[in-house]
Write a structure and sequence with these properties.
By secondary structure, this protein is of the alpha+beta class. Helices cover 50% and strands 18% of the residues. The strands form four sheets. The protein has a seven-stranded mixed β-sheet, sandwiched between helices. Helix 4 runs antiparallel to helix 5, helix 6 packs parallel to helix 10 and helix 16 runs parallel beside helix 21. The longest helix is centred in the C-terminal third of the chain and has 36 residues, at 586-621.
Length: 670
């Protein structure tokens, strides 16, 4: 088989796996049910656990070093047989990687360490060579184990969809594995269960919490024909759903792919780390050659090669970016690439959209508008009584407000719900309608134009009783509760904030005053928003734009970093570089602070590596550093820089959080 054929076959296997594999579940049976595509040992991006082969290799090298130190079994006077065997067995992974990199014309630390090991063995310093090998093996294992923690954040995202799914096939209901699900299947989802597919409701009526996917804070009513998303929670009624997209093709799957793509992307700082690592290898070899030419001391020359190295940069930089992306993902911010994380760490201006970004989808009764001759109390009391049995978010808001106002609520004698229109009920023998204009006009109740058109931008719930209009209840969104702290957190970082909106100046300035935003640009068209962002970029500002709508997409693209709210439109989420899931604006400040912390850690690693190398090379060239001590300094500094980067890795999930997640991990049942 040709090289091209091998790649084609491999790509086909990957595509089939991605199309069919469903994310694994957590819990006791995850080991038996987890598809091969998601096992840690099959996933090249998952890191790897400490295997018995690695443990055996480290143990053999340690025993060989001990035997050489105590001069156990030395049949040959010039060569330690145990030392040679220990180096061949223990150093094989290092030597193999060095040769592969050399053939690929990549200058890496494995090559310089191989030269150091071989050189130490050549002057019969087998103990030193074995200790160098042991240090490198242990460091690589610790590095891999640390990196695997970062990748765990991605695998945690895969635990949200159910594995066992109930479907209707051939007139009956059966349970199938997620891997065998096909588009067109009729999927049954009970209340409290997670929806496993993207599709359309065939039958049933329910409210669905889709905040995990779209970020909408309120449950969304679902009736036949409505779209649903994988990863959302069915709350109140049984649904039958026609599967349209499964696995990696679902909205939730796209979120996972965005995180995985972010992990694979390379930021400018990461490319700089690669280049600097290569330069330091050349520098180490050059310094070693110069040391030998000046001193003719092979021990000092080998010490120079051993002590110098950029492993702290080469390993620490991607680990820092991976850890930060994983931590951000666990916190609800999907960063689509290391490039955007690096740019986010340099942002000095944050531009905020108003509607849907600073305002929150939480309904509040803003005002009561009774018609002449009707008291506001009677208007509210009638509406709340009719809504007592309703599960609609607006209905619950009305009931809560009425109870807080001290209204006496009477159970309706009859309750009916018309999806998309509102409530028709019977209270004290009188017909009551609570809903939109369509509902009232369908039943012959006229609403004056002055009342119907009075409050643009708010939701109006109209109330009629006994064939007479009582009035309207004005319901509007609040400014997001977390918006105050989010803006304050951004400003505390020394970042300039600007409110950008197409709304009227009076409304924009009111919101800005509540949040402490001094600079406001209002009544802007989408092209005006984009032009304003481009002007800031032209002034050498590093701009992050936060928005949620189609009209924000041009501005999101124009900014160095675009951030979309999770409840935003598909266009906004696709245009953005960062998606804030769960619609929590508070994650904005957290993500900015995390990006800045990541940059600081990476630059500390840069400066530290260069400083340690320069100091170590000077000591080694002066003959003050033997090969063994040089190896210790090299590996110790590498581990320090790796552990410095590991501070960014997501912490372990608390027991309460995991228990809550497992309770949410409901299996779909009939």
């Amino acid at each position: 088989m040709s090289e091209q054929q091998r790649h084609t076959a491999a790509d086909a296997r990957v595509d089939r796996t991605r199309d069919s594999a469903a994310p694994p579940v957590s819990g006791a049976d995850s080991a038996s049910k987890e598809p091969a595509a998601h096992r840690a040992d099959d996933d090249p991006g998952a890191g790897h656990a400490f295997t018995w082969i690695e443990a055996a290799r480290i143990l053999l090298v340690a025993l060989a070093a001990t035997a050489v130190w105590f001069r156990v079994w030395e049949p040959l006077s010039a060569v330690s047989v145990i030392g040679v065997l220990g180096l061949l067995v223990g150093g094989w992974p290092i030597f193999r990687e060095a040769v592969e990199n050399l053939l690929a014309r990549r200058m890496t630390m494995e090559l310089s360490m191989t030269i150091a090991i071989v050189a130490a063995a050549a002057i019969t310093q087998f103990f030193t060579a074995l200790v160098i090998t042991l240090f490198v093996l242990v460091a690589e294992v610790l590095e891999d184990m640390t990196v695997s923690r970062g990748r765990r954040a991605i695998r945690d995202l895969l635990e949200f969809l159910p594995r066992a799914i109930m479907v209707r096939r051939a007139g009956g209901v059966c349970e199938v594995d997620a891997q065998t699900l096909i588009p067109g299947d009729a999927v049954l989802v009970n209340p409290g269960a997670r929806i496993p597919v993207d599709g359309a409701v065939i039958a049933g009526h329910s409210f669905v919490d889709q905040s995990r996917v779209t970020g909408e804070s309120l449950p969304v009513e679902k009736t036949p024909g409505a779209d649903v998303f994988a990863g959302s929670i069915n709350q109140s009624g049984a649904l039958e759903i026609r599967a349209e997209r499964i696995g990696r093709d679902t909205s939730f799957g796209k979120i996972i792919e965005a995180v995985e793509q972010a992990e694979r992307s390379r930021a400018p700082v990461l490319r700089l780390a690669d280049r600097l690592a290569g330069y330091l290898v050349y520098f180490a070899l050059g310094a070693a050659l110069l040391t030998y030419l000046l001193t003719r001391d092979i021990r000092s020359t080998i010490s120079v090669i051993i002590v110098a190295g950029a492993c702290g940069i080469a390993a620490g930089t991607p680990l820092a970016i991976l850890g930060a992306i994983g931590r951000a993902a666990r916190g609800g911010a999907i960063v689509k690439g290391g490039l955007y994380l690096e740019q986010l760490g340099r942002v000095d201006t944050v531009v905020l959209d108003k509607t849907g970004t600073l305002t929150f989808g939480h309904p509040e009764i803003r005002a009561l508008h009774p018609v002449a001759g009707v008291e506001a109390h009677a208007l509210l009391e009638t509406a709340a009584a009719a809504e007592l049995r309703s599960e609609h978010p607006l209905g619950k808001t009305i009931v809560e407000h009425a109870r807080a106002a001290g209204c006496t609520l009477v159970e309706p004698e009859r309750f009916g719900y018309q999806p998309g229109r509102g409530i028709d009920a019977t209270i004290a023998g009188e017909q009551v309608y609570v809903g939109n204009l369509t509902l009232l006009r369908d039943h012959g109740i006229s609403v004056p134009d002055a009342l119907a058109n009075a409050h643009r931008g708010s939701t109006e719930v109209y109330v009629a009783r006994g064939g007479m209009l009582l009035g309207a209840i004005e319901i509007a969104d609040l400014v997001r509760p977390e918006a105050h702290s989010a803006v304050a957190a951004v400003q505390a970082l020394g970042v300039r904030t600007v409110l950008l909106t197409g709304d009227t100046r009076a409304v924009a300035e009111s919101v800005a005053a509540q949040l402490g935003i001094a600079e406001v640009r209002a009544e802007l068209l989408p092209e005006d928003k984009r032009a304003y962002i481009e002007g800031l970029v032209g002034d050498r500002r590093i701009v992050a734009m936060v928005g949620d709508g189609i009209n924000d997409a041009p501005a999101l693209i124009a900014a160095q970093v675009g951030l979309a709210m999770g409840s935003g439109t598909d266009v906004a989420r696709e245009s953005a570089d960062v998606v804030l899931l769960g619609n929590d604006l508070g994650r904005l400040g957290e993500t900015l602070a995390l990006a800045r912390r990541t940059r600081r850690i990476i630059w500390v690693n840069f400066a530290g590596t260069i400083g340690v190398d320069a100091f170590g090379i000077a000591l080694a060239a002066a003959g003050l550093l033997n090969p063994l001590l040089a190896a210790f300094i090299h590996v110790a500094s590498e581990l320090v820089f790796i552990l410095n980067s590991a501070r960014l890795l997501p912490g372990r999930q608390r027991h309460g959080d995991r228990a809550r997640q497992e309770r949410e991990q409901a299996t779909v049942s009939p």
